[in-house]
Structures
1.
Amino acid sequence: MEQIALDPVDSVRITSLVDNVADTTAPSTGPARRTGWGRGTLEAHTMVGGRTSVPLVAEHGFSALVDVTKGERAHRILFDTGVSPNGMIENMRRLEVDPTTIEAIVLSHGHYDHTAGMHGLIEALGLPNLPVYLHPEFWNRRRVVIEGRDPREMPTTSRRALEDAGFAIIERAQPSFLLGGSVLVTGEIDRTAAFEQGFPGHEALRGATWQPDPFILDDQALVLNLRGKGLVVVTGCGHAGVVNILRHVTRLTDTDQVHALIGGFHLGSRAMLSRIAPTVEAIAAFDPTYLVPAHCTGFRATHALAERLPEALIPNTVGTVYTF
C-alpha cells in the first residue's frame, strides 16, 4: 500500500445529526457537549401555555456534521444523511444549523439508513451544486436474506435524482482528498482481520441475479489528522470492519496515533456476537483517546467497549457536539 501525506488540521468539531439515541439527561463529558434539545418551542395545545420544548429526532440511521479548522479557515462537510427523508434536516433546523454552509458531502455506503436524508437536503437547498463523494458500488440494489423469512430488499438511492438535483457525483474506489489534502475519504478498505467476515445474508443484484455481497465494498470512512494528537476517524456502519478500517488508515497515513473513533461499528445483530470480543481487544490495541460507538454498534458491544476502555468511551446521543 502506497502511503499518503495527510495535512494536519488545527481542530475538528463533529455534530451528531442523526443517531439511534436521543437523551436529554446525558451529561457533557470531555470533548462532548450535550445539546439535548432543539432551540425554541413547539405548539402543543394540551400543554399549559400551549407550547412545549423542541425535541431532537432519533432514528435508526447516522449523520454527522464535520467542521474542520486549518489556520484561519474553517470548512464544513456532511457525512451521511440518516434514514428518513426529513429527520436530518429537521434536526439541523432545530439545532439552528444552516445547511447552505455545507461544502461537500461524503456518503459512507449505499444503505438507505445513511442516504435517504438527501431528500430533505434537496428541499432545503433547492439546487445544491455540491460534490458528493461515494464508491462506485454505492448504487447497487441490495437485500437481506434471513433464514425462515422472505428476502427484504432495501430502498436504493437514485443516481438520476441526485444528478437532477444538481449534485456533482464523484465516484472513486481509491482514496480521495478534500479541502486541499486535509480530509481523507478512504475509498475501499483492505480486509485483513480474520474475524471481520462481512454481513452474512447480505446480497446485491448483479445483472439479473441476486448474489452474495457480504463485504459491502463501498463502505468507506472519513479521516483527519489532528495536529499533535493523531487521527480522527468517522465511520458510517463500519461494514468493512472497524478493525480493518483502523488498520487501513493507520497504514495509509503512516500514523499510529488514534485520537478519536466515532460512528457505527455494526456489531449489534445476533450474527455479530462472536466478533465483539476480538474487536474490543483489537480496538484497545490502538489505544484511542476517545471512542464514540454509535448507530449499529449495539448494546452488548458498547458495554464491552465501556468495560475495556472506560476512560475513552463516550456514548453518543443526537445533538452532541464533539470538539477535538
2.
Amino acid sequence: MSASYRSENHARAAIVDAARRMNALGINSGRAGNVSLRWNRGAQDGLLLTPSALAYDAMTADDLVWLPVAVPAAEAPDDEQPLRADGARRPSSEWRLHRDLYASRGDAGAIVHAHAPFATTLACLPRIHARGIPAFHYMIAVAGGDDIRCARYATFGTAELSAAARDALAQRRACLLAQHGLVALGASLEAALELAVELEGLARMYWQALQVGEPALVDAREMERVHARFGRYRPDADAPG
C-alpha cells in the first residue's frame, strides 16, 4: 500500500501535507487529530505517524515517527509510549489507535483521526452513542454500511479506545468516537482524508436536519441497492474487510 511513494521521504512529505490539509478543509483545528500511513521497512510491517503536540504548520517530514505494527511482548496495556519507535519526537498520543487498527485491518493503508466539529458534536449525544448516524442519506454507504457507528467512550491514547474503535469499524471504513471525534481508513492518504471530509459533511447535514425535525430514513432494501451501485462506480467505497 506504500508502493505509490518513491521513497520514505516522499511518504513523510505526503503525511505532513495531509495533516495540514485537515485543518484547511475544516475537519480539524489546532494541534488536534493525527495522520498515519502504513509504511513497511523491508519485511517489517510498520507505520509513519505524526508526532505529539506539534503544530502542523511547524511540522516537517523529519518530525514523523516510525513504529512497528507488531506489539512487543514486554509492552503493558497502559504504556504511554511504545517500547519501539524510530524518531526524535514522541509519537502522537493516539499511536496505539493507529498501530492496533493496522494490525487488525489489512485493508488500511492510511488513517485519519480528526476532531471534526459536527462529527464531534453528534458524538456527544446519547442517541448517537446508541444508534450512530442512521441512513438519513444514501451516502451513509460511503463508510461501508447502513449507518455510521459511534465507538463507545474510552480515555484517549488507551488500549480501551483502540478496542472500541476496532469494534465500531468492523465491516466499516469510518466511525465516530464518543466525546472525541472521527476515524477514517483508506487505501491511501487521499482516500482516508476524502472519507473523513465526507463523514464530516454527513454529520453536518444530519445535525442540520435534526434542527428541523426527525429525518426520514432510507430503508434497508434501498441501501442494498446503493451498496451494489457503489461497488460498480466507486469500488473504493465497497465493503471493507
